[in-house]
Amino acid sequence: MTELELIRRFPQASAIPHVELGDLPTPVESLDELGAEVGIDQLWVKRDDLTSSLYGGNKVRKLEFLLGHAKAEGRRQVWTVGAIGSHHVLATSLFARELDIEPRALHFPQPLTDHVCEVLQALSTTRPDLELVDSKNVLPVKLAQRRVRDWLSRSKDPYYIPGGGSSPRGVLGYINAAFELARQIDDGELPEPEVIFVAAGTCGTLAGLTLGAKMAELSCEVIGVRVVDKVLANSLVTANLANRAGRLLAEFDIEVPRIRARDVTLLDEQFGPGYGEETPEGLAAIELALRYAPFELDPTYTAKAFAGLLAHCRDSSPPPSRVLYWHTLSSADLGELVEGADIEGDLPEKYQKFFDGRE
Ligand SMILES: Cc1ncc(COP(=O)(O)O)c(C=O)c1O
Question: Which domain-ending residue is among 147, 165, 183?
Answer without folding.
Answer: 165
